[in-house]
# Entry
Amino acid sequence: MIRKTALILSCLSLLLCIPVHAQDYDYSDEDYWYSTCSKVQSTQEGVNACVGFQNHLDAQFEQLKQEMEEYKNDLNSLQSNSSRIEELVEKQKKLSDSLEKQVESMQAQIEAVKKEIEAVENEIVEKQKEIDKWEDQIESRMISEQANTGTNILIDLLMGSSSLNEMFRRFSGIERITASDQDQIEKLSDLKKELELKKEEQERLSVQIEEQKQRIEEEQEYVKQLESSYDQLAEQYHKVEADLRQKMQEEAAKKNQIPSYGVINSGTSVDLPKVNGFIAPISGGGRSAGTWAYPGGGLHLGLDWAVSIGTAVVAPADGVIIYASNPAPTNGGYLGNWAGWPYGGGNTIEMLCNVNGTLYAISFAHLAQEGFNVSAGQSVSQGQVIALTGNSGNSSGPHCHIEVYNLGSMSVSDAIAMFSRSADFAFGTGWNSTATACEAGAATPCRERPERFF
# Structure
């Protein structure tokens, strides 16, 4: 009798199921779908949508792996071509950003799914208790009815039904099977379908966690590969960067494209105090690249001070600001981003100061767009905060690039007049050679090694 009852209920469950047709979903808002599909779905349509989202992620990952292979092939054929390197750097950045976002989302999703699985396990236990109770009631009712009729006609009638409608007609044709009995059977069928869906969801989420863990490991390995390839790109880029910048600056001068914004007025009168020595413009951090070369090769005409974004930059001496402009996003730097002036400087400041009777020009590049506290023509005091560090322009990470120019005995007014005509941060010392280094015996204006002072 119990087996026959179970068969009847199974038939009802199957007959009452309504097929859910697959449909297309818009998965462009991935954050929404990550959140939604980390939870137990209460409908078959929701399950289908989440299975589709997982397929969407699988396709994305396969595309990502294909792009990685293409990227590695491009690296293998790389030559010292600045535009080609810039193209690959941009591709590397997109791949890296995509990987980091996916890893972050998946890690958060795993934790959310674990909580959902725990909750659904408890629901399944309670749902099973409820179903057992209903089955006992229906079975008891049927046994009672058969005792009264002395026959198995009820079971025979139900098992002989060829469709759901016929089954319901047979139910209604038996006086002892009331509307209440039919309602109980339908509710029991719904409960069973709900239980099965929850069990399927539990399995789906468990599988999802394992797949996510494996994918995170794969993507983290790709991130390591990208970091390594980026170092290779940076080395190649730095070898051609100086010549490229020199050409760009010369071309700007020929076409009279020197910026007028942010430049001190030629007739500005300044009483520049003399100080006995410099102070460090930045506290903390360390040198990521020194003067005159990058660690991996390539000309480097200043000191890179590696600190986190938002670190204070102070005036190393009393002075006057001769250029200040912040057109670039604070954290928008990448190799080949030539925003700002000088080209690639991002957000930049240059100031004049008189230290021990010598006039110096000091420039700061790759600053933050926010916290830009000075403007051209403004006098500043030693130790005064003039800006914050950033990662703007032609930059591969948060740092401040500092250059120092020795102008010798040049007067402040002459230096201002010279700069206002050309906005030449280098004061004629160029951008692609160490020949104008002061330590090489070059006449002033000449380039100093910032490490000598800071």
